[in-house]
UniProtKB/TrEMBL annotation:
The keyword Transferase applies. CDD domains: LPLAT_AGPAT-like. The keyword Cytoplasm does not apply. It holds the Pfam family Acyltransferase. This is 1-acyl-sn-glycerol-3-phosphate acyltransferase.
Length: 229
C-alpha cells in the first residue's frame, strides 16, 4: 500500500483500522485495474453506512492510490478526527451554505495536481428502502467536467450490516462480508466542451449514478445467485 502523502495522523488511523478490517471483515475487492496508477481520478461511491468511508479508503489504497476524501466540514471540528482529516489533506464541504460550491475549487485543484479524490455523490446515506443509490448531487459532475479526469464508479455492499445506520459500534461478529467493485471510467467526453448548465451537469451526474447502480446490481445479483446454490 502507498504511504507517501498520507500524513501522520491519517496514516496512523489507517494502521489502527487495517488489522480490524483484516480480522473482522470478509473483504472482497474487484475492479482495481480500472483505477489509473497516477494522475487525477475521481472515485465515486454509493453510500449506505458510516463504514463506507473505511471500505472506500481501503479500496483506494489497495488500488495503490492515496485518496483525498470530500466530506462534510463538521468532521474537521471533531477532536482527533479533525487532525486525521487535516493530516490526510482531505477536502471539507460546508453543507447547506453557499460555501458548498466553493469547496469544489480545492477538489478540482487537487485533481489537476494528479490526486485521487473520493466522493459519495448522493451526499448522504441512501433513503431508498432497498438500499439502491438515490439521485446524485451535481458536485461530482462539476468536478469531473472542470478537471476532465476519469470518474471511476465504485459500489460497496455489506457495510450496512457491518455498521448499520444509527449505531455507533460496528457489529464485528460474526464476520461480515463486504464487497467493493469498481467499473470502467464513465464516458463524459462529449460533455467537456459544453457550458456547465443544469442540464449538462444533470446528464453527467445521471451517467455516474447509473454506472454505480450497475456495479451494485452486479454485486447483489451475484450474491443472490450464490445463496440459491
Amino acid at each position: 500500500m502507498p504511504r507517501r502523502g498520507r500524513g501522520f495522523w491519517f496514516s496512523l488511523a489507517i494502521d489502527v483500522l487495517w488489522p480490524v478490517v483484516v480480522l473482522f471483515v470478509r473483504l472482497k475487492v474487484r475492479g482495481k485495474h480500472h483505477v489509473p496508477g497516477n494522475g487525477g481520478v475521481i472515485l465515486a461511491f454509493n453510500h449506505l453506512s458510516n463504514a463506507d468511508t473505511v471500505a472506500a479508503v481501503v479500496f483506494a489504497l489497495m488500488s495503490h492510490r492515496v485518496p483525498r476524501v470530500l466530506a462534510k466540514a463538521s468532521l474537521w471540528r471533531i477532536p482527533v478526527f479533525g487532525r486525521v482529516m487535516r493530516s490526510g489533506g482531505h477536502i471539507p464541504v460546508e453543507r447547506g451554505t453557499v460555501k458548498a460550491s466553493e469547496a469544489l475549487r480545492p477538489a478540482v485543484e487537487a485533481l489537476r495536481e494528479g490526486k485521487c479524490v473520493m466522493v459519495f455523490p448522493e451526499g448522504t446515506f441512501t433513503n431508498d428502502p432497498e438500499n439502491w443509490p438515490m439521485k446524485g448531487k451535481s458536485g461530482v459532475a462539476r468536478m469531473a467536467l472542470e478537471s476532465r479526469v476519469p470518474v471511476i464508479p465504485v459500489a460497496a455492499w455489506g457495510t450496512q450490516d457491518l455498521l448499520p445506520r444509527g449505531t455507533i459500534l460496528p457489529r464485528l461478529l460474526p464476520r461480515k462480508k463486504v464487497e467493493v467493485v469498481a467499473g470502467a471510467p464513465v464516458d463524459l467526453s462529449d460533455l467537456y466542451d459544453l457550458e456547465l448548465t443544469a442540464e449538462v451537469l444533470g446528464e453527467a451526474t445521471a451517467r455516474v449514478m447509473d454506472a454505480i447502480t450497475t456495479m451494485l446490481s452486479g454485486i447483489r445479483s451475484a450474491q443472490a445467485g450464490s445463496q440459491k446454490t
